[in-house]
Amino acid sequence: MKSYSPELAYYCLFLVSLWLSGTLLEELLQCRLLGELLIGIVFGNLGSLLPEDKSTLILAGEVGVLGLIFEAGLGTDIHKILRAGPRGTLVALIGTIVPLATGFGFISAIVKFPSLQDPDPEKPISVKTEALASGAALASTSIACAIATMKQRGMLETPLGTLITTAAMIDDVVSLVLLSIVSGIGNLASGEETGSGIEPMTIIQPIVASLGIIAFGFIACNVAAKFHGWRSSTQVVGLPTEQTPEQEPEQEYTSTSISEYEAKETCETNEVRKTKSRRSAVQSRAILVYKTFAPTIKLATMIITGFGFSILTEYLGSSRLLGAFVAGVFFSSFHSLKALYDENIEHKLQPAMSAIFFATIGFAIPLTKILDPTLFGWGIAYTVIASFSKLITAVLVPSSPQPADGRRQRSNDRWVVGTAMIARGELGLLMVQQALLQGVMGESVMIVTTWSIVLCTLIGIGALGFVMNRA
């Protein structure tokens, strides 16, 4: 008799819990990933709820995060980035460099305390690489939180909304480049020559590869835009015009020749009609088949191209996530393909895959350590520093040159920009996970950084809503 296996019931419970917790936290705090992260921590630490081998779920999470980054690229508008220009770039650079520097300094200072050290004589972790990975994770910005909040208040399409989304996009691109560097250091640390130090090419190659991929994506987007413009112009200019058929020379016919001619013409007309009828039937079937399968083929080609480009990007020495993002930016100019993706993937499959990814991050967090008061205290201190390191953009970066209502509105615009940059979100958690898996960050620093990312996300959402309500 076959014994009963509870694994299927546990998997169903896991998926239902993910959905319920994500929906509840989305309604209460507008932070869905927090609920999914908590479920991952619970199921990851209670070994009886899921099998020890969670490789299938982890692999599904990897696919989910590629889709998440690809979706972010699809939502990127190159024209908006170009319109925001130097102001958006300035906000992004300040919002990246300052958190990276402060995070590096903070972790470098506190990692010397015994509570944050993870002694492992076989795989010692360099303090500098650990601090760099943590600072890079806190340099990112959650564009999803900012967009959701501004959408609710109708500010997304305003110049201020364009500035914030542009700065967040540039922040994420720079963070992806930093992730490439951290991955390169992690690959070196996991190799055999761990004691030989970090060579310059370990840092230079990811930067050069990433910049080359970004440049290639920008050129490809421009080519696609010009192609669309050329097609539109040819469709407008090349419309068929009415043409008068060439008049045949008049001929004289006798009564006999006329009857023969009519019979011949009638025969030819019947043959032509039959041929046209058969051709029309074939064309109708072909059109029907094309309309049935064309969306599926286009969507499959789009997804395969995105995954293929991400693999190529990783092979060249950069991050596969950057490749997925650039591929998404390229396809963002094809509105029909974007609509297909939104309808079939973004609103149906992607939420489940993203939820599994955030849960897999929770798998790697030990429950006993995340509840450690000392680590939680360091996480709060890190949150304060990380929040101010983003809020500084409100002081150093001027607001919109065309404020809606005098000096008070100008000041409020600056604080909207600053608070919108505080929330970290999905990319920061991803960088922490990658750093832990590749051996460039210990568990204690990972927990402190995770606490900071989660708390910054909650603070950023609340602060942005408060400031925008006072606008």
Automatic annotation (TrEMBL):
Annotated compartments: Membrane
Gene Ontology biological-process annotations: proton transmembrane transport; sodium ion transport
Location of the region described as Disordered in the Swiss-Prot/TrEMBL record: 238-259
GO MF annotation list: antiporter activity
Bilayer disposition of the protein: Multi-pass membrane protein
Transmembrane portions of the chain: 6-26, 57-78, 90-111, 131-150, 162-183, 203-225, 288-309, 352-370, 376-397, 448-468
Record-linked Gene3D superfamilies: 1.20.1530.20
GO cellular component: membrane
Keyword annotations: Antiport, Ion transport, Membrane, Sodium, Sodium transport, Transmembrane, Transmembrane helix, Transport
Coiled coil start-end: none
Domain of life (superkingdom): Eukaryota
PANTHER family: NAPA-TYPE SODIUM/HYDROGEN ANTIPORTER, SODIUM ION_PROTON EXCHANGER (EUROFUNG)
UniProt-recorded name of the protein: Cation/H+ exchanger transmembrane domain-containing protein
Source species: Entomortierella chlamydospora
